[in-house]
């Protein structure tokens, strides 16, 4: 049995969700910017020892991996503490952390200092990746959660496009230090977030802060339901964070979701790193090969937004399976000698199935777990997947080092996409328990008070829930 504590106020709910989406997406634009800008400035650091000191290609590659390692550690750390500290506090701290990290990196005077600061910046980047989806999922209207999460996480590929564009325009007049100073721009989001992003009422409720949760839900316009009795596995209610992920309720799903993210990020970083080089091997000049990279990212953004609207109407799981399969087909078609228009269309669809699928995955995992495990679940998805992000560029490099061509690289990436589709298919279906309560709360009604609670019968709850398939 569950109790409706606060009913939805749709207008105020949309306003609150809009502010949360603006803050989270803005932060992730610069998250993507940070992870891409290093590739933009690396030739400068390699060719000019006066910048940081002598730098060989192997050291340059290692410096690039420091930020990725920081993201891995930051995401997993966020998962360990996020469900204890709360969404709002962690969002404010992580945005401030990586913004200051970018600013301090701009003034690095040695290779060692640069590497350390890249790692420290990565900690904040990983935390933002993990907490953004968890926060958005708890403020988005119940029937638009996947869309809102897609908007938020589309900031990552959009940031990659921003970094590439600004690198072309501003690298020469501003230098690499100027590009890193631009990366500190999200600091302006912190005071806005302080006033516009409330703490999650659901999280407050799970921490026993009932009166504060009710007051916050009323101000935010979000529905609030005491749905603890809807969860059949009591251990999932009692445990929080990663401990909850290890319970029988979540264990199998967590494994498959981790490998889903592994495949998605392997494709994302493998293609982002090697696509221009592969297309140059097919005879395209530098500008033409970079155009493929921009189309890949553009396809990801558009495809993720369209796919998320479909996922909100039906279910994210079959959409993710389908987009992974789409990526496998289009990457295979890229090996044929076809007119340039067809190749552009195929790489745009591959963007939908690679970067776009990863965006959809963040929305899926953000709504799959309940509040007590949500931050940890998103952190696991972002953190474990980051291993694929580290491996992806190495796979491309290994293929090149043994003398294989672009066709073989596309075949390998297509195989990874099929692996991702299989992992998505194997994720167990489960009732979206919180949506069950939210749908009830969203029904037109007078806002309930703590002493005026409307109980839901078990039959009502079962009818309101739907499979997260």
From TrEMBL:
Annotated Low complexity bias: 436-458
Topology within the bilayer: Multi-pass membrane protein
Keywords carried by this UniProt record: Membrane, Transmembrane, Transmembrane helix
Primary location group: membrane
Chain segments annotated as transmembrane: 20-41, 61-85, 97-117, 123-140, 147-170, 176-197, 252-275, 287-307, 319-336, 342-365, 377-402, 408-427
Stretches assigned to coiled coil: none
Name of the protein: MFS transporter
Natural source organism: Brevibacterium aurantiacum
């Amino acid at each position: 049995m569950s109790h409706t504590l606060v009913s939805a106020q749709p207008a105020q709910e949309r306003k609150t969700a809009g502010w949360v989406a603006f803050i989270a997406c803005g932060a992730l634009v610069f998250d993507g910017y940070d992870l891409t800008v290093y590739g933009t400035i690396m030739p400068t650091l390699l060719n000019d020892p006066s910048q940081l000191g002598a730098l060989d290609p192997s050291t340059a590659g290692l410096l690039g991996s420091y930020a990725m390692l920081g993201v891995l550690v930051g995401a997993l750390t966020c998962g360990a503490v996020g469900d204890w500290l709360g969404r709002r506090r962690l969002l404010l701290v992580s945005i401030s952390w990586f913004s200051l990290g970018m600013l301090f990196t701009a003034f690095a005077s040695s290779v060692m200092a640069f590497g350390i600061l890249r790692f420290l910046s990565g900690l904040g980047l990983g935390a933002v990746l993990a907490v953004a989806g968890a926060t958005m999922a708890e403020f988005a209207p119940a029937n638009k959660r996947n869309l809102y999460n897609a908007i938020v996480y589309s900031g990552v590929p959009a940031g990659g496009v921003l970094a590439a564009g600004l690198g072309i325009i501003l690298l020469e007049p501003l230098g690499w230090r100027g590009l890193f100073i631009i990366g500190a721009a999200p600091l302006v989001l912190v005071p806005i977030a302080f006033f516009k992003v409330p703490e999650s009422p659901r999280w407050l409720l799970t921490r026993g802060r009932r009166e504060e949760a009710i007051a916050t839900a009323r101000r935010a316009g979000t529905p609030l339901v005491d749905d603890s009795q809807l969860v059949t596995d009591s251990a999932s209610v009692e445990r929080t964070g990663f401990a909850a992920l290890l319970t029988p309720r979540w264990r199998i799903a967590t494994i498959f979701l981790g490998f889903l993210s592994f495949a998605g990020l392997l494709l994302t970083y493998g293609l982002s790193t090697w696509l221009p080089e592969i297309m140059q091997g097919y005879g395209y000049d530098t500008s033409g090969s970079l155009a493929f990279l921009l189309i890949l990212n553009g396809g990801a953004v558009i495809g993720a937004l369209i796919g998320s609207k479909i996922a909100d109407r039906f279910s994210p799981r079959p959409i993710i399976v389908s987009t992974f399969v789409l990526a496998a087909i289009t990457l295979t078609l890229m090996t044929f000698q076809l007119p340039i228009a067809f190749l552009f269309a195929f790489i745009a669809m591959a963007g939908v199935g690679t970067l776009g699928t990863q965006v959809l995955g963040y929305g899926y995992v953000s709504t799959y777990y309940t509040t007590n495990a949500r931050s940890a679940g998103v952190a696991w998805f972002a953190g474990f997947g980051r291993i694929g992000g580290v491996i992806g560029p190495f796979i491309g490099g290994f293929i090149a080092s043994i003398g294989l061509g672009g066709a073989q690289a596309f075949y390998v990436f297509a195989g990874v996409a099929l692996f991702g589709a299989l992992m998505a298919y194997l994720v167990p279906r489960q009732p979206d328990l919180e949506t069950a309560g939210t749908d009830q709360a969203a029904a037109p009604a007078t806002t309930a008070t703590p002493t005026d609670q409307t109980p839901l019968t078990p039959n009502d709850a079962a009818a309101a829930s739907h499979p997260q398939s």
